[in-house]
Specification:
This protein is an alpha/beta fold and 410 residues long. It is 39% helix and 16% strand. The protein has an eight-stranded mixed β-sheet, sandwiched between helices. A six-stranded parallel β-sheet has the order 13-12-11-14-15-16, with helices on both faces. Strands 3-6 form a two-stranded parallel ribbon.
Length: 410
């Protein structure tokens, strides 16, 4: 039997063939972890919802076309199907546990006996990891990525998370506010650590800006602002549209073109409303919606544009901010999640209060009036890679797992 530690990872947002852009931050971390010289063996249970209640217009039957098992680099990825009642998030952990238990038992009976369970997000994966850990008598870790505070507003979900967090071998937060949230639920400070995400600097890097503009059809002299994310209301794309229209109407600064890159999200499809607001504000001639783009396309947009803007209402660790910085693109971002840990100095961008229209307008005007040192921005954005993240996570895993020679592998 191998002496490598065996990790069973749970994620409902792991990328799949029909949603290649979903949860890339999860796959990047796991791939880097499995690739460490002394790293673990990892199998991923990435359940696919049978029905997509929030995205009917594009893909109601989400599981269609997704294979049940595949290899992604060093990862053995399995996609069991699961179902839950619509608008019943309080039941999601129970339904997910019932669906994943048979998959775990098959792995166990086949001889692949995992040493630790690794859950991404506190709900529902964290609660399910706690139940599986109790059943299989294995330690588990939970990585909080941003939705935990939202679910904690519902009494029973707060109770479930508190129960699961208190039993976790380690709570990993991608941003400091999430670590403090876990401590507020009773997790000992010594058991909660902050490990921010990294950036893939082989993809997100400075490119020839003029060449990118030429390929994307952007005039050399144009002033361009980029917004990236699923087309859902909490991403605030429409707030940027309104801010630019007001600046244009007031004649404050040169006209700015807006590029919105993203497609419909699991939480819904806000695209028709965004397009309505674009037309209503007279911004149709200065707004381009690209739809969902691949990382290779996104890096060109980030290099071609002058500024990146994140107007989200809530985030954990918005990787897209770090990716923009890694390309040398300064950022205007709402003060949500880990943004203050990304934009640590005025040389990298401007932080504004979320949902503050006036502050957003002022920041856009100020940012376009500045001369930015894009090389300095890129140096900062590329300073934290996924290899470093993997090493930090690996240290936490080893701290909670009984060594392979011990009872856990007996």
């Amino acid at each position: 039997m191998s002496d490598r530690i065996r990790i069973l990872s749970l994620s409902t947002v792991f990328p799949n063939p029909t949603e290649p852009g979903c949860g890339i931050f999860v796959s990047r971390r796991l791939e880097a972890l499995a690739s460490l010289p002394d790293g673990p063996e990892i199998k991923v249970l990435a359940p696919i919802q049978v029905m997509d209640y929030g995205n009917r217009r594009h893909r109601f039957w989400r599981a269609r076309g997704v294979v049940r098992r595949r290899q992604q680099g060093p990862l053995d990825v399995r996609h069991p199907r699961w179902w839950y009642p619509p608008t019943s998030s309080i039941l999601n952990p129970a339904f997910l546990f019932a669906r994943l238990l048979p998959a775990c038992l098959r792995l166990w009976w086949s001889g692949w006996r995992f040493d630790v369970i690794d859950a991404h997000f506190g709900h529902p994966e964290g609660v399910v990891a706690a139940l599986l850990g109790m059943l299989f008598r294995r330690p588990f870790l939970i990585t909080m990525r941003g939705n935990e505070r939202d679910f904690a507003r519902i009494g029973i979900l707060r109770t479930w998370q508190q129960w699961a967090f208190g039993r976790a071998g380690r709570m990993i937060a991608v941003a400091e506010p999430l670590r403090k949230f876990a401590i507020g639920l009773g997790v000992p400070e010594s058991n909660a650590v902050t490990i921010p995400n990294g950036v893939d600097s082989t993809v997100f890097r400075p490119l020839d800006r003029s060449a990118c503009r030429a390929r994307l059809g952007i005039a050399p002299e144009a002033k361009v602002l980029l917004s990236v994310g699923y087309l859902v209301e909490p991403k605030g794309h429409h707030d940027i549209v309104r801010a630019l229209s007001r600046l244009r109407a007031a004649g404050r600064g040169a006209p700015v073109e807006l590029v919105i890159a993203g497609g419909a999200g699991r939480e819904g499809d806000f695209e028709p409303e965004i397009r309505r607001i674009i037309a209503e504000t007279g911004m149709a001639d200065r707004t381009r919606m690209t739809g969902a783009v691949s990382p290779d396309e996104l890096v060109e947009w980030m290099n071609a544009t002058d500024l990146f803007c994140l107007a989200s209402y809530s985030e954990g660790w918005p990787n897209v901010v770090l990716e923009a910085l890694a390309c040398g693109t300064p950022v205007i971002a709402a003060n949500v999640g880990g943004v203050p840990e990304m934009i640590t100095a005025p040389d990298y961008g401007i932080i504004v209060p979320p949902r503050d229209a006036g502050a957003l307008e002022q920041a856009i005007e100020q940012a376009f009036g500045r001369q930015w040192n894009r090389a300095k921005v890129a140096e900062w954005g590329r300073s934290r890679g996924w290899g470093q993240v993997a090493r930090e996570v690996w240290a936490q895993v080893r701290a909670v797992v009984t060594p392979p020679s011990g009872p856990a592998r007996a």
